[in-house]
Structures are given as C-alpha cells and as structure tokens.
C-alpha cells in the first residue's frame, strides 16, 4: 500500500459558492492524481506547534497538480473558518491524500448513475460530474440535490447550464422557490423515483451528505428496488469544523 505523505499546498484562487461556503483552488507539487469521490486530509499548524486536521472531499476531476476543495464554514470550528475567511492566495496549508477507494466513480464505467446529495454532500458528486464531462461523455447521470433553500446551492451556475447526459432536480427542505410545484420538505421516494433512474436500469447510486440524510435516502433507494450492492454511501457528521 502506498504511504500517504503530507505535501505543501499553495492557495491559487477562491470562489464563493454561498454566503457560508467557498471553493479553494490549490496547487500541490507532486500530486499523484485522484479518483472522483476521494478526499484529502488538511492540516493546520500554529506557531506554537499545535496542529489540527480535517478531511475534505475533492470537488474537481484529476487535473495535474491542481485540486479544488469546497468548504462549508462551521460556526466555532477550528479549521473551516480559517480556510474560508482567513486563507489568502499565496498562503500554504498541508495536505495528505488522496484518501478512499470505494466511494469513487471511474471513467469507462457503463452503468447509468444516480447521484443523491444532501447539502455539502454535493462536493464529491460534483467531482464525478466534472470528471464525466472532462472525459467527453460516458453513461448518463441524474442528480437529485437536496438543500435547505435555493441560496444554499453549491455550483448553482454550473449546474444550471445545459450539460448533455446530466439531468438535475432539486429538493428544498426548508424554503422552496416561488412557483415550485413541490413544497419544501424532506426527500421522499417519489423524489428519487422522479429524478433518478428506475431500478431495472441497474444504475450505480452514490449518496452523500449528513448521516441521517444518507441513511434515509439509501433506505428509500433500496425500497424502490435498487440493488443494495450498487448503493454506495459517504456520510459526514459534526467534527468541530
């Protein structure tokens, strides 16, 4: 097994996604590349030697020595406020990765894909979407993206652009936009049936988000007849940010 080493990552640029989330573009000399769905560990070290680290999903496809992370600021967190509010282009942090080999999508796969995102769980799924596009196509993707309200959507402009082979539907849990046919509420089996692929197409399903959301969505997919072996999940919970 290849041993992961810490590397100096230099911030190149930033983009705000929502009022509380920011995309960070880093340069990592010697980066070996990654698969869509993998993540990295980020370590911060203070002048007094105290260090702390968190794991963040990669949002970009593999592209040389650059990677993108989209970080949601956690109130009173140790790492996310620094990354989203303090770190500036030219600054460095330490990174280790890529990490993970099960919750990944590989170019060349032929099965259609269902992506189910809860909140910032869209990040690794966006890496899959971008990798498919960079590969020049591939199997059709369908994304069901659950978020509190329209203002909390990550990658809103990119997902709103026409993308052959990608269908996107939204589930708003707290506040739906005016004129929406679906009232705000928790994701349901009807949402997954309408926005995803039927089970008889034998799609690969990827579900990412908070633990409660992931467990609920995975149960709904299996209840709709999807093969449990094709339902891959990645969950996150409170970590202190």
Automatic annotation (TrEMBL):
Coiled coil: none
Residues annotated as transmembrane: none
Entry protein name: Ferredoxin reductase
Keyword Transmembrane: no
Pfam families per UniProt: FAD_binding_6 (PF00970), NAD_binding_1 (PF00175)
Keyword list, A-Z: 2Fe-2S, Iron, Iron-sulfur, Metal-binding
PANTHER family: NADH OXIDOREDUCTASE HCR (PTHR47354), PROTEIN RFBI (PTHR47354:SF5)
InterPro entries with a match to the protein in the record: Cbr1-like_FAD-bd_dom (IPR008333), FAD-bd_FR_type (IPR017927), Flavoprot_Pyr_Nucl_cyt_Rdtase (IPR001709), FNR_nucleotide-bd (IPR039261), MRET (IPR050415), OxRdtase_FAD/NAD-bd (IPR001433), Riboflavin_synthase-like_b-brl (IPR017938)
Signal peptide, first to last residue: none
FAD-binding FR-type domain mapped to chain residues: 4-105
GO terms assigned for molecular function: 2 iron, 2 sulfur cluster binding; oxidoreductase activity
Cofactor: FAD
